[in-house]
Design goal:
It contains 10 helices and no strands. Helices cover about 70% and strands about 0% of the residues. The chain has 2 domains: about 160 residues, no CATH class; about 35 residues, no CATH class. The protein is elongated and about 85 Å long. By secondary structure, the chain is an all-alpha fold.
Amino acid sequence: MFRSILTVLSKYSFHFLLIPFIFVLHLSNYYLGLIPEHFYIKYLILYLGFSLIIFLLSKWFLKKNPVAAIYTTFLLLFFFGFGAFHDFLKSISIPEFLVTYTFILPFTVCIFLFIGWKMKKGKKIYRRPNYFFNVLFLILVSIECINLVHSLSIYKNRENDLSGWQKFYSREYNPCDTCLKPDIYFLVSDGYTSSDCLRNNFGFDNSNFDSFY
């Protein structure tokens, strides 16, 4: 049994398909209770489709499945990690030009084209790197799944409910009928999510706020 698992891990190159799962599960753990489940499912499907397209294009160019899988993984790691990488570059003391998109994007394209050219010319099958990425990403997926189950078991999604799942304020609010009220209210919804976004992505009807506003 164990030997057959090792054979599958070393023979098949599926690690690039695990990257979207890691990314979406990590976001689900981080924003648990804030974003509805169908949002994650939608983007997981989109990311999986995107990963398959990249793999098929890489296979057409590089010809071999293991080589194309490694190249696809490099591209996806850069795609999903670009935001954090760019923020890191901006936080260190380097010339400002080096962190602009004008420099980073063309430079990155040249780097990946060079890597693809070297991999196409080479004769390596990359069995060990494929095995390594398969095992590593399976471990990361397992960790994220365990964290998700643990967070759900302790109702962490309730802690992230910005409206307060127990509704303390709305239950304890006691309006004052005899208090003197101002005749002008100045409401600034700066940074407030639009009603269309709340309805389409979160399934929340904000019409009461719109009509009052």
